[in-house]
Amino acid sequence: MDSVTTPSTSAAEADFLRFRQARHRYVTSPQGPLALVSTTEIDSEREIDGVPGLWSPVAQGQSGVRVTAVASDGIVVDGEIVDGTVDIAGLDSVVPATVSFGGGVTGTVYPGPNASYIVRVWNPENDRAQKFDRISAYDFTPSWVLEGTFTATQKRAIGIEHIKDEGRLRDEILPGDIDVVIDGQPRTLAAFEDEGKLLLVFQDLTTGDETYDVGRFLAVRPRRDGSVELDFNRAYIPPCGFSDWFNCPMPPAQNRFLFAVDAGEKRVLSV
Question: What is the pTM of this model?
Answer without folding.
Answer: 0.90
